[in-house]
Each structure stands twice: as C-alpha cells, then as structure tokens.
Amino acid sequence: MAALAAAAQAPSMKLKTWPDALTLKADFNPIIPAYWTGLPHHRRTPFAISPDGTTGHIAYLDASGKGVHVQHVDPRAMKAKYSDLTIPDVHEAGGLAAHEQGFALLGNEPVPSGTANAPPGGTPVPAIYRYIHGKQQWKTFIAGPGVHPDDGLSMAPDMNGDLVWSPESELYGAYFVVTDYTGFAEGHFGDSIEYVNENGTLETIDGASSAWGCSHNTGIAFEAAAEPPFASICSEDQGAIWLNTQTQGMGNDGVEISNENVQNGASNEPMGGMSGSYSSLARFVNSSEYIFTWVSRGAVDLTANDWMGAGYTHADNRTVARRTAMAVLSDKNTLVGKQATSVVGAKDGDSQVNWVTETAGPDRSNAHVAVFDDTYALITWEEAADPVCNNIVMGCAGQFTGTYFQLVNKAGEKLGEPLVRKDVYVAGDMVTTNDGKVCWPYVNMEWSLEDPGYGGAEATTRKMSFACMSLV
Fold first, then answer.
1. Taking CA atoms, which of 67, 164, 235, 346 is between 20 and 30 Å from 83?
2. What integer pLDDT is reported at residue 5 of this predicted model?
3. Cα separation of 128 and 151, whole Å?
C-alpha cells in the first residue's frame, strides 16, 4: 500500500522545445563517427547556465574541425544574448562551466610551435580556458610538456571527457581520455584527472589527481564535490565499470559497479563513447547523493582475468543488445546496494544491476541523467529496433524508434512510463536550472542509427534547438 501511495504522489513530466531557436554564426557538423564502429553519434555541444540563472553558454566545434565557438544564450527564450566568441585552434569542446561573468571550457589544441617535449605531429593537448566578460583570462594545459613528466607525457587526439566546477573548493576538475607519448604507457590509451584553481594554476593533489587511471577508457562520468577528489566513474577494457573516486583508477580496491564484456580497447560505450562522456553522473540538489546511468549487455559466466590477476574477471554478455541501467550513490565514494561480484565461476554477474529497461530486444544507447531537485531525476536514452550488432562489444546499428525520458527517484525507483519522442535528442549537457527544470541542446534533424556513413561531413547546420523537461 505504501508503494502505491508513493506512486500516486509522484509528479509527472512536461517537455517544452525550442526548435531552431538559436542561429549559429558558423557551420556545425552535429554528427561524429563512433570509435571502433564508425556508427553515427551526436557530436557533443557543451552547455551550461550561470549560477544566477540569467545567462547560458553553448559551445560547438566549427565544421572546419578547428576553432570552438561559444555563444551566450538567454535561457528563457533560448535566443542569442550578447556577442559570441571563438577560441581558435581548439579541436573539440569537452566540457563547459558557467559563471556570472563568463565561463570556463575544456578543449584540446596543439602546444605552441617549438615547445620542448611536445607531442608528435602537432597532436592536441587538453587545456582549460577561462573567459571573463568575453576576454580570455588564462589558458592552462593539463597534459603535455611539464605535466606529470615522471609518469609519462600525454596528449588527447580526441576530446572525450568532462569539466566541472566546485564553488565550495573553488577548483575546476577535468577528467579526460589521454594517449601517452613518453613513459611506461607510451602508445596506449588511458585517462587523467586534473585540478586547476580559479587563478589558472594546475594543482597536483594527492589522492585526487591522476596521470594515468583506467585502461582504454571509453566512458567517463565526473561530477563536482565539496572537496577533491570529485566523484568519478570509469569504464575500462579489462571487464568492469568502477566507482573510482578514491582510487582514480581501476584497482580492485575500488567499488565495482558493473561487470562488462570487453575487448582490449573497447567496452560497449556504456557512457556514450566518442564525444559522449557527459551527463551520466549527477548530484542531487543540496545533497551528497548521486545518480549514475549507463548501458550494458549484462554479464554471465565469469572467468579469471589472468593478465590483471586476482580479483579481476572476464564476463560473457547476457544479451546481444544493450539495456539501460542506473545506480545510486549515498556519497561520492559509496554505492547503494551490492557491488558487482568478482567471484570466478559465477554464472550470474549482473544480479546487482538496477535495470531501467528490463526487457531485451532493442539496442539502447546515448544514456544520460540529470536531477530536478533533491528527490527526482531524469534518465534518457535512445532505442534502435531490430539491432544489428556486428561487434561483440561497442554499439549496434538499427532503426531509431525514439528518445526515451524516464522519471526516477533517489531510491532508484522508476515512476510511471517513459515519455517517448522521435524529434528530440540529447546532444549536449543536461543542466538543472534554478527553477527545477532540466534543459539541454540538440539539433533539429532526422536522426538515424543505421548507417556508419550517415550524414558525413555534409551534414552541417547553423541552427541549434533546445528542450526543457519540468515536473508538474
């Protein structure tokens, strides 16, 4: 009876859209081919709103592949506000934090010509850019020459990561995929967590900063906390998704959220994959609790991972296509409920998973989450019917049947049936506004999940759309 009463009291959701509301000053290609498969993904458009709620910022990569544009937006009308600006030489935008007098952006660009110990071939390096009143105040490279030289120097040919700001600690945190070009991991992919203070100084913080964490990380989840280390989750290519706030890596002394079937270099794109590591971990308003979402094929028949050693396992897939799952954290270090088993020989490796989509069949992808308040959250994903999954890991092709929006609470319960739309997508950060809405950018286009060559370089636009979900 109590469950029925709670369900009866739960709010419903209302979606409002602003199709083609914002005219961009430059061409933007909204499609990026996925790593490994080449299947179409939404190219991320980082989005943030200032703490006072008066100014939004949206960042997008010029269709030339060089230069990121940042446009101020009125979050009430989703129209242009003030003039926009361009950060030249940046190869991709990987996160945005809004302030009342400007913003900070995570991007990647080549280091200046002639710099000692620069990456080969002009490969870009991650950097954080801080702007106030339209003027750049500082730029801080957070990898490359001089950054963790004893651990190996790193670069970022692709900008897969996220940027967050903690007003309590007055620190920016960035979590991003890297490739090392010197040191023990030269030629391999991993990830790095770095902190920069409000003055642009890179700070190496024991127990929080990390030069190299999770191997071939194709999924990053990152969210601010009152003090470092910030909440972090990684998906590695040895068999698991880890809550690694305390470890910053893939050590089995961390918290194992999920067993995953993987291959060296690939791991199911659980948090979006290429251009996708955003809005998969969110902190409830005025709370220490978090909610996380990902997509998974489940796990059966655990065997020993001899290369990694004791406490690590391999798993087979339970389903051919992926399902959407969620997990709740009581704080940045603690998973609510059981963690995944690492017992060799276990037939059931996913009994701890809280499935948002309980039935198999369609392939689910592009999962994201944002909170409305201190109790309710929105989980969203896309579905492809009759999926063709040519790879045992990574994504599937199929007929796009819609974007799904599911209301959940911090107890990890689904509330009502999902709202489904075929004309709205999540292609940028999901932001919680001061009045309790969840808003995000997307491109008003006919979306397909079927053809690896879909769209291509010709699929450019000068229009950006927005959507907001509210509770009623």
1. 164
2. 45
3. 21
Under 8 Å between Cβ of 395 and 416:
no
Weakest mean pLDDT among 61-75, 251-265, 404-418, 448-462: 448-462
Distances in whole angstroms, Cα of residue 104 to Cα of each of 57, 326, 335: 10, 29, 30
CB distance 395 to 37 below 8 Å: yes
pLDDT at res. 454:
55
pLDDT tens, position by position, 155-175: 999 999 999 999 999 999 999
Q: Is the pLDDT of residue 385 over 70?
A: yes
Q: Quote the CA–CA distance of 146 and 302 in Å, as a whole number.
A: 42
Residue 22 to residue 417: CA distance in whole angstroms:
31
End-to-end CA distance of the chain: 23
Question: Which pair of tokens denotes residue 361?
Answer: 């069949």
**Which residue, among 75, 49, 77, 76, has the nearest Cα to 431 in the 3D structure?**
49
In the structure encoding, which two tokens stand for residue 175, read together?
A: 């979590």
CA dist 363 and 378 (Å) reads 20
Residue among 140, 249, 128, 239 at smallest CA distance from 192: 249
Interacting residues of 337 by C-beta distance below 8 A, sequence separation 6+: 327, 328, 352, 354, 412
- Tell whether the model's pLDDT for residue 29 goes beyond 70: yes
Residue 30 neighbours by CB under 8 Å, 6+ apart:
42, 43, 45, 427, 443, 445, 455, 459, 461
Cα–Cα distance measured from residue 240 to residue 247, given in angstroms and rounded to the nearest whole number? 14
pTM of model > 0.90? yes
CB neighbour list of residue 352: distance below 8 Å, 6 or more residues apart:
337, 338, 339, 340, 341
Backbone angles phi, psi at 203, to 5 degrees: -110, 125
